[in-house]
Write a structure and sequence with these properties.
By secondary structure, the protein is mainly beta. The chain is built from no helices and 8 strands. It has a domain of about 50 residues. Strand 2 and strand 3 form a beta hairpin.
Length: about 80
């Protein structure tokens, strides 16, 4: 899959970037995609991963209309 360079909505230019997940304090990180349904942890906030590998999400933004398009590509 190639990176989008032209917006499918308005024809503007698509810029690569990422979505920021605010974890509180110094815990800011890139949003990640995880396969399957979330399983809550009982004693700490968050979800269990149990062997599932989070994949970073890259998001492209149109500089004309602001349309966002995201991809989660596993690194090889």
């Amino acid at each position: 899959m190639t990176q989008p360079t032209t917006c499918p909505k308005c024809g503007g230019h698509m810029e690569p970037g990422f979505l920021l997940e605010r974890g509180g304090g110094p815990r800011d990180q890139q949003v990640r995609w995880v396969e399957g349904d979330p399983v809550p942890r009982w004693f700490f906030s968050g979800v269990k991963l149990e062997g599932r590998e989070p994949v970073p999400v890259t998001t492209f933004r149109c500089d004309g209309c602001g349309y966002l398009e995201s991809f989660a590509r596993a690194t090889a």
